[in-house]
């Protein structure tokens, strides 16, 4: 319904930002990361997601499309609601979340308030499974076996970075362009992903 809202920041509270759009204040539930970029009275643009349940309509807003994509992925996991998703994305960046999923690092998820070991394991399991089945895109360098549609991802920086970007919702073509020419040898995986993301938003 809403792709984004843009206007002066009218109010800021924990996990909430109100954006004034033509005299109408849109209350956007958001993350601590997004709030860190906002200042009251300054114009902001938040990419939105409208969450509908029963008779409630809750609007969520994020400073980047990657953060919004991660939010949508997280609430698609059984047992993970919007509150838990915001908590996770307040404790880590989109690239950090993608790395946690690809590397199976449940400890990186449990640092988020209210996220226990079982929920962290479920997030990693379900999102890895979606990636393997190609539902989040096919990573560059992956191989498919036996016509099953399962993508086997070799363990090296290039393919791990590609898989992490696929988690964020980018296509194989976009990933190939973003990673072309990036120094894979001397940089850490998170920095490789960060550079690729910067290229995509240019």
Radius of gyration: 18 Å
The tally of beta strands, per DSSP, is 7
Number of helices: 9
CATH class of the largest domain: Mainly Alpha
Query: Distance between the terminal alpha carbons, to the nearest Å?
Result: 26 Å
Main β-sheet: number of strands, strand sense, barrel status? 5 strands, antiparallel
What fraction of residues sit in β-strands? Answer: 15-25%
pLDDT < 50 stretches: 137-154
Describe the structure.
The protein has 202 residues and is of the alpha+beta class. The protein has 2 domains: 4-63, OB fold (Dihydrolipoamide Acetyltransferase, E2P); 66-201, DNA polymerase, domain 1 (Orthogonal Bundle). Helix content is 43%, strand content 22%. It contains 9 helices and 7 strands. The strands form 2 sheets. Strands 3-2-1-4-5 form a 5-stranded antiparallel β-sheet, covered by helices on one side. Strands 6-7 form a two-stranded antiparallel ribbon. Helix 4 (94-103) packs across helix 7 (157-167).
Concise structural overview:
The protein is of the alpha+beta class and 202 residues long.
Write the layout of secondary structure elements.
Elements (H helix, E strand, L loop, with lengths): L3 E10 L2 E6 L2 E6 L2 H4 L7 E11 L2 E7 L2 H11 L6 H10 L2 H10 L3 H4 L6 H16 L10 E2 L6 E2 L4 H11 L4 H8 L9 H13 L1
Overview features:
202 residues; alpha+beta; OB fold (Dihydrolipoamide Acetyltransferase, E2P); DNA polymerase, domain 1; five-stranded antiparallel sheet; two-stranded antiparallel sheet; 7 strands; globular; hydrolase; helicase; RuvA
